[in-house]
Amino acid sequence: MPPRFAKPAAAALPLYPVAPEGLDALAAGLPGPARAWIGAQSFGAGPGEVLLLPGEDGGVAGALVGLGPQARRARTRFAAAAAATRLPAGDWRLAGELSAAEAEEAALGWLLEGYRFTRYKAGAEQGGGQGGAAEARLVAPEGVDAGRLEAIAEGEWLTRDLINIPANDMGPAELEEAARKLGARFGAEVTVTGADELLANDLPLIHTVGRAAAPHRAPRLIDMRWGDAGPALTLVGKGVCFDTGGLNLKPGASMALMKKDMGGAATVLGLAHMIMATGTPVRLRVLIPAVENAVAGDAFRPGDILPSRKGLSVEINNTDAEGRLVLADALALADEEPGALVVSMATLTGAARVALGPDLAPFYATDDASAAALAEAGAAVADPVWRLPYHEPYEAMIEPQMADLDNAPSGGMAGSITAALFLRRFVTETPRYMHFDIYGWNQAAAPGRPKGGVGMGARALFAALPKVLEL
């Protein structure tokens, strides 16, 4: 079931998020049995640490959840969310001295903590969330927009589901089905350009990358539109449902997580859910080139020079740099209807992981104001991002001798930046363009973020839209 807060209830038990610095003051304001109990325990209010409080009748009267020391608070996002799976079943409410921002983070973290991926577990139901009789449920804090937080969490759950589903059940056709289902829910129009139509509709790079796949996994371009008022926002998500590397075949270890190579598509669909569910006043377009980069007799080859929708020729120096190819045609299409902002999201380069690791989403922006608004929003909503530069001197690295562009410059330097520069060549009419080079995978479980597929940058961008688009 989708993530939801519990209905307000007089019997909801208090949950006190507390830092070590505030533990003594909090304890001093509690009834005698609870105060004595805290003093007798080794509870230090470390991140996610939980302590149940006894009542005079011997039952549970409340609980504490640690936030960790103030000086190290930035090390753990959603620390209070750890309580969601450690508390007895029933209704709970946040209590104590919390700022509005702290209450919102704790509440959203609780919803995100409820996610479970159990699709392939015998006898289990897909999803998690609140509402079941045998789980702890949180009442939305006063002053928090509960509906907005639920929409954000549900969008994130959608992203996680799509990434976590293995490639045998999440090919281009299934990704199309997910987009159609989302569109139908919110009254969006979804059209699809199928494999037989890609060349006729001047989308040659999408066709070329996906043509070696089996017929039931044929390439396509998914196009969703929603909203008829407000600034135009186009989201473009890389939908490579599995990436073998093509003829430049990946080694086995590098192929293990390639089901997540459609993480950009999953993330823009999750973000689209947030936008549509909250009625954000934009004219939204979502473009997803959905392909599988497979190996077959008609696979594209190293050394090929390919045409693109933009009219730029592309020399192929590595068939494993296919994501920027399918994005190029989709971005060129988006650029033909210049709007306020085009955003691309993609699990694009290993270089981005080397530079910033798996937890921090690098992004590129063509204007400073949008970049500043995004960085500020990311910090505020615990969705960290970091701007990398469109470094102009590196333009020469993507310009080969025999074609306009090189899809994989030799030398191995500045791989994320050169990929971003490559994509920028296809967005020339839209005044503002942002690109995210995300990882889309959480390597180890953390509060609000279980191991597996995860959205990166979507919540930050959603929070930044009012400033970026002047809504």
Secondary-structure blueprint of this entry?
Layout: E1 13-18, H1 23-28, H2 32-40, E2 50-54, E3 60-66, E4 90-94, H3 100-113, E5 136-138, H4 146-164, H5 172-186, E6 189-193, H6 195-198, H7 204-210, E7 220-226, E8 232-237, E9 239-243, H8 252-255, H9 263-277, E10 283-293, E11 305-306, E12 314-315, H10 323-335, E13 341-346, H11 350-356, E14 361-365, H12 368-380, E15 385-387, E16 405-406, H13 415-424, E17 433-437, E18 441-442, E19 452-453, H14 458-468
Parallel strand pairs: 1-3, 1-4, 4-5, 8-10, 8-13, 9-10, 12-16, 13-17, 14-15
Antiparallel strand pairs: 2-3, 6-7, 7-10, 11-12, 14-17, 18-19
Helix pairs in contact: 3-4, 4-9, 5-9, 7-10, 9-14, 12-14
GO molecular function: manganese ion binding; metalloaminopeptidase activity
Keywords: Aminopeptidase, Hydrolase, Manganese, Protease
Domain Cytosol aminopeptidase: 318-325
Can you summarize this structure?
Pfam families: Peptidase_M17 (PF00883), Peptidase_M17_N_1 (PF21337). With 471 residues, this protein is of the alpha/beta class.
Structure description:
- By secondary structure, the protein is an alpha/beta fold.
- The chain folds into two domains: 132 residues, Leucine Aminopeptidase, subunit E, domain 1; 320 residues, Aminopeptidase (3-Layer(aba) Sandwich).
- 31% of the residues lie in helices and 19% in strands.
- Strands 6, 7, 8, 9, 10, 13, 14, 15 and 17 form a nine-stranded mixed sheet that branches. Strands 2-3-1-4-5 form a five-stranded mixed sheet, sandwiched between helices. It has a three-stranded mixed sheet with strand order 11-12-16.
- A hairpin with a 7-residue loop joins strand 11 and strand 12.
- About 1% of the residues have low confidence.
- InterPro entries: Leucine_aapep/pepB, Macro_dom-like, Peptidase_M17_C, Peptidase_M17_N_1.
- It comes from Oceanicola granulosus (strain ATCC BAA-861 / DSM 15982 / KCTC 12143 / HTCC2516).
